[in-house]
Amino acid sequence: MSKAQTDRPAARLNVAVLTISERRGPDEDTSGDYLASSLSESGHHCVQRAISKDNIYAIRAILSQWIADPDIHVILCNGGTGFSHKKSTIAAVTPLLDQVITGFGEQFRYLSYQDIGSSALQSDALAGTANRTLIFCLPGSGGACALAWENILKEQLDSRHRPCNFASQYLEPHSP
User: Fold this and answer.
1) pTM to 2 decimal places
2) Stretch (H or E) spanning 107
3) Range in 29-33, 77-81, 140-144 the model is least confident about
4) 123 in a structural domain
């Protein structure tokens, strides 16, 4: 159940969306489109979008640029998180993180289990922070992106959500 404190201003976050896929181009990026649209509907700004091949170094190059940009608060990655030797997202992202948000992957797999059963254990959904930037790695399916957005991210990126949320840190002054 969502608890929001509506007497406070909502933080408008600048978010970048990275789709990792060997097959999708801009016209087929329905998961990236969904995330960008959902961000906008929630009052956030999708300030960057990109599509990367499932290659550790290509993914890291894009993410490193976004992590270094102080105007990007959140990065949503979709794709490349499944259980396969061909999937590179988690291997690319993990070394860049300053802190892992362990509960995100656990919560996502719990919700996913209710939807797809034991196949949920093959998701390496991950979240963490790097240089004060929140990074969330989601599976690439539209259903998985919607599950994560509607049940976790929408509330946690709302600075009015109580008892706590990830967005509130952007309402406080930044100290290096």
Assistant:
1) 0.90
2) helix 102-116
3) 77-81
4) yes
